[in-house]
Specification:
alpha/beta; Rossmann fold; four-stranded parallel β-sheet; elongated; disordered N terminus
C-alpha cells in the first residue's frame, strides 16, 4: 500500500500508456478515449495511435510497440482474424485490451435482433449522411457572419444571432459536422439589429448571450492578437453591458430561445441547440418532445 499523502499536498499527475488500435481512421476511438480520461483528475495518457490497421503484418508492428511501452490497449478492430491476433498478443504480454464499442454493439444487436456488420469503416461510408454533412459545412462557411440573402437563410435549419465574439462561427461549424445547416448573423450597434430575421419561416432563430465581463475579456484578447488599441466601445464595460442588455431584450421580444454561452464550451452550446432543433422538429410532425 502506498504511503498516505500529507494533508494539503498536491496530487502528482499519473502518466500511462494507452494504445488506440483501429482498422479505420481512429477518430471514434480517439474521441472515446479522451472522453473517458477526462473523468479522472491528474491522469495524463501517453497516446499511441494506430489507424488503418488492416493486415497481419501491421498488427504485428502494433504488438511490438505495445510490448515496448506496456499500457492499456483500446481497439475498434472489426476483422475477426485481426481481432483475435490482437487479443492473443495482448494476452501473451499480460496487457489488458478492450473492444471499446463491444458493450454498445452487443446491446444494440440483442435489442434489434440483428447481426453485426463486419464492414470496416462503416461509420465513414460515403452515404447520404456524409454528403449532407459536407453540404451543411459548405452552407455554414458561405453564410458566416451575416453573409447571404434572407432567401438563402430560409434554407438553414438554425440561424444563430448574437453580439460579436459569442462563438457563433465555431458553433455553426460544429453543427455542420452533425448535419445541421447553420448560419449566423452578428449584432452590430448602429448597423445590424437582427430585425431582418423576424420574417424567417423555416429556420429556428436562436439568440446567444454572454456575461459582460467574460465578453470584454474575450474581446480584449482578440484586440491584442490584432495589435489594436483597447480604447474603444468594443471593450468599454458600460457600452458592452448596454449592447448585451439590448440584444437580450430583442431576443425575448421576438420570442427567440436564448442560450447563455458564458460557461459553455462550443460542444455544450451545440448540444443545447441540437436539443432545441429536435424539439421543434418533433412538434412540427406531431410527436411529443
Amino acid at each position: 500500500m502506498s504511503p498516505a499523502r500529507p494533508p494539503g499536498s498536491s496530487r502528482i499527475a499519473t502518466y500511462f500508456h494507452v494504445h488506440l488500435v483501429s482498422d479505420s481512421t481512429g477518430e471514434t476511438l480517439n474521441a472515446m478515449a479522451k472522453a473517458v480520461v477526462a473523468r479522472f483528475d491528474g491522469v495524463i495518457p501517453i497516446e499511441h495511435i494506430y489507424a488503418l490497421v488492416r493486415s497481419e503484418k501491421q498488427m504485428e508492428e502494433v504488438l511490438t510497440e505495445v510490448a515496448d511501452a506496456p499500457g492499456l490497449v483500446l481497439h475498434t478492430v472489426v476483422d475477426r482474424d485481426l481481432r483475435e491476433q490482437l487479443e492473443r498478443g495482448c494476452k501473451s504480454l499480460g496487457i489488458p485490451q478492450i473492444g471499446a464499442l463491444d458493450p454498445l454493439i452487443m446491446a444494440l444487436s440483442h435489442y434489434l435482433g440483428a447481426d453485426v456488420s463486419t464492414r470496416v469503416g462503416a461509420q465513414h461510408a460515403l452515404d447520404t449522411g456524409y454528403f449532407n454533412r459536407m453540404s451543411a459545412l459548405d452552407y455554414a462557411i458561405a453564410h458566416d457572419d451575416g453573409q447571404g440573402s434572407l432567401h438563402e437563410l430560409e434554407e438553414a435549419d438554425v440561424v444563430l444571432c448574437g453580439v460579436s465574439r459569442t462563438s457563433k462561427t465555431p458553433t455553426c461549424i460544429y453543427l455542420a459536422h452533425r448535419g445541421i445547416r447553420a448560419a449566423n448573423v452578428p449584432l452590430v450597434p448602429g448597423s445590424e439589429d437582427g430585425s431582418r430575421l423576424e420574417g424567417l419561416k423555416n429556420p429556428l432563430v436562436i439568440g446567444l448571450t454572454v456575461a459582460p465581463d467574460r465578453l470584454i475579456q474575450i474581446r480584449r484578447n482578440r484586440l491584442d492578437s490584432l495589435n489594436q488599441g483597447q480604447t474603444t466601445d468594443y471593450v468599454d464595460h458600460d457600452a458592452v453591458r448596454a449592447e448585451i442588455i439590448k440584444a437580450r431584450r430583442d431576443f425575448e421580444r421576438r420570442g427567440w430561445p436564448v442560450i447563455d454561452v458564458t460557461r459553455r464550451s462550443v460542444e455544450e452550446t451545440a448540444a443545447a441547440i441540437v436539443n432545441l432543433v429536435n424539439a421543434r422538429r418533433n412538434r412540427r410532425i406531431g410527436v411529443p418532445s
